[in-house]
Fold this protein.
Amino acid sequence: MRFLLTFLILLLPFSAAADERVSAFALDNGLQVVVIEDRRAPVVVHMVWYRVGAADETSGESGLAHFLEHLMFKGTKTMAPGEFSQRVSAQGGSDNAFTAWDYTAYFQRVAADRLDMVMGMEADRMVNLTLAQGDVDTERNVVLEERATRVESDPGGLFSEQRQATMYLNHPYGRPIIGWRHEIEALSRDAALKFYKAHYAPDNAILVVAGDVTPDEVRELAQRHYGPIPAHGGIGGRVRPAEPPQIAERRVVMQDDRVGQPYLVRSYLAPSRQTGSQADPAALVVLAQLLGGAGPNSALSRALQFDSRLAVQTNAYYDPTGYDHSTLTLIVVPAPGITLAEAETALDAVLEDFLATGVNPGDFSTIMARIKAQQIYAQDSTMGVARRYGTALTSGLTVGDEIAWPEILQSVTPDQVMEAARKVLDRKQSTTGWLRKDIDQ
Amino acid sequence: MIARLFALFALVAMPVSAEVAVQEVTTDGGLTAWLVEAPEIPFVALEIRFRGGTSLDVPGKEGAVSLMAGLLEEGAGNLDALGFAAARDALAASYRFGARTDSLSVSARFLSENRDEAVDLLRLAMVDPSFSADAVERVRGQMLAGLRADAQDPSVLAGIAFARAGFGDHVYARPSDGTPESISALTVDDIRAAHRATMARDRAYIAAVGDISAADLAPILDKLLGDLPATGAPLPGPATVALDGQVIVETFPSPQSVILFGHEGLREDDPDFFPAFVVSEILGGGRFGTRLMTEVREKRGLTYGIGAGLSIMDHAALVTGQVQTANGTVKDTIDVIRAEWARIPEITPEELEAAKTYLTGAYPLRWDGNANIARALVGLQLSGYPRDYPSKRNTYIEAVTLEDANRAARRVFDPERLSFVVVGNPVGLGSP
């Protein structure tokens, strides 16, 4: 099959920042390939990411992308159910998969010389999935148990699902990735196969290989295994129902007997990284750290945990990557005797003060040093680096965007942070959730 | 880092061994540490464990060691909590202090460019923590909030009930984060006493992986640990494992039940350890193809995940497992687990080979990432393994015969003693 190599087109040879050696190219059938060289251990991570996730499901079929992820282990024309994972573990490797709103990804971590084998199997199930009705029915129960474990057994899980649904009036980000229970119960074999045929194809996938490999090796293997799979050709853009502008703040007050410690969560709709336009999200990453993500170097922690003692814990979180949107989220866990209402008032006072006084220069330089160091520490995890590229490329970004990101992050200025803060910290574009056991909390 | 011997790996068939080039470093102050030099990324991962951990909590002072560990970064030397955090983050260093049942862990990462300053600051936290009244109240509040949340978490409740059932009056039976009552009553003196009892040179195990040489590491270690007490509090004695076929139900309002199960196991120095370890992988390794995963999840769809294995603590050795299932299927799940326990000594040659191939193949894959390797190396030291263990370990797995496996299976896995703790609202669980 070597002659097929002539069909390769080398799209973008990249040489990233000092220690991260990234190359990217594409096959004729549209499969995008990213290779990250890391020679520290004779290990390789092989991942296939599909540009399809829970937000691409049809309304009424929530959980289908995740259900299909489970079913992908149930066999192909030449592989028995469960055989995929057994073959990987027979080689000492591990494998798994994960689903999010914007992507579904499958990975194996194996000795570097087993790349050929796992690639062959992953290519096989890109097109040859077969599903026995009995396996589908059993797996549906597994997913229902997964939902019970992850969501229903934990009031925090249910609360998060309720808040997410409240944040989006129209966009499918409001739907739980695992699916609503009543819709999981109705997911069928036919629906799964239809979804599979509509979305699983080389021209809707990204191959990420990270570890002890060269781009040439990956190119040859990818061509051999994925090259012969025809492009789908008909997979259109991902146009999801758009969210209308939010003009009124929303609230979720949830009471559950199982709540041991009440807390409040405030989320603001925020932009996400878009190709060629990453400066605002970079400023929001710094903003989240300044507000609550950097412990005592953050405004919320200092005001509420150290000064007023109204809170025992505070945090802030912003994920810059998302195909359509993201959110900036603030969390306050009130001290005993402090009600959620009092905690919320205190939270708003801190935000108001932040908007009025601006960035604390000491915090800013500390946080920028931290961000820079995190980029160095992050290289310690090959899997983590591979995930970054997979997430970016399934979220509408390019390899070039991802390579540029660390520097964009490091060049954020206090003015950019304040501008982003003024845009995003608007209560009209927020959802506030209270989770409590009793009405007087 | 992994030695280049691994170039051979691509050419030969498995089994392979983990050729980790571990150096032993002895300091002028008499400390020893294991070091793997890995200059590829400009930082060092340093892992220190002090044997003892929360098992050294004095009766009535449960949670003191955990609270103490939570306070090490909350002010030290002339720095208050805010000052310490600012100094640490300006250096972009990261320190984590963890209180475990058998050890207190210090996990540090620091950049090559400011290594000396980062070490000085870590030393301050370890040797000269302030334990100011202000910080104590703040962290105590966080721990109490955590305990309030734990009190409503069925997995945590199951763990507490399992320890209580399994360890009788041994210190292991007590919750390592204490209780609201014990935490509320702790004084600054209790916390200082916990610091002296746990963080002492005679019980320190050290590994460093990253951009540092042996010559540079030794003086750093003397600086970090030299001013700690030479000896700490005596360690507790062995625990008697009291799991003898009980089924304990704790009612909790949840759609699912958390089930912990297990009984006494065996230690690493037992001649049957490796056979039993391979058997436990066949039974309960938390991956597809293992017996429990096949029977409980794949065939019956009763759970999202199930696993079981040997859990070895300093003063007790157990076989334990965990599963979550709907309240209505708790009885079915327990029946399947019991049946699998009874079926263990029927290991087939194919199962044994598959497990050995998996274990020997997976072992070298573990050794990646500086922080990961540092943790693994300290773990080996605490278990008493020699420095060349990573290169030998697969030969011990390879040596397990079918006869060994089935003998160990019969000896170690006992369906009569297999005990269950269920937290939830299980249906149909009468007296066993």
About this structure: The mean pLDDT of chain B is 92.
